[in-house]
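Listing 4. Sequential folding, example run.
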Amino acid sequence: NEFFQIIFEASTRLERTVDMMLDFSKLSAGDFEISLHPVNLVMLIEQIISENEFELNKKPIKIIFITSSF
């Protein structure tokens, strides 16, 4: 099960990389449109950390993300 999770996460990262390269290609060609919309930044950061947790655990670094409500 963990093996399949690793494969899934790696394929997701690869898909994002390809998407970014295609977006860069569109940007270079002047064929790119930016649309702004609200995003839950805390949820986005937590998702990025979660998706990269396996790779992060391989390195001698520690990421601490603290949220606080005012």
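-- end of first protein; second protein begins --
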Amino acid sequence: ADDPPIPFFHGTNDELVTIKGPEKMIEEFREKGVEAELVRIDRGDHITAAMNKEAVDQAVSFLSKHLSSE
């Protein structure tokens, strides 16, 4: 696929968006050949997952790996 890789991170305590949403999106992206990754943030909610340094670091690592020109 010509689509860019997509990293997701999601808090396990997110009550606004359940974990099933990103899990389904990851499954569908992969079926279409799009590189996708889901990082679960233990006990994170909707906001704290987005601000989690480990998640951001993993997203940067994932994108660096897949977008590298090497």
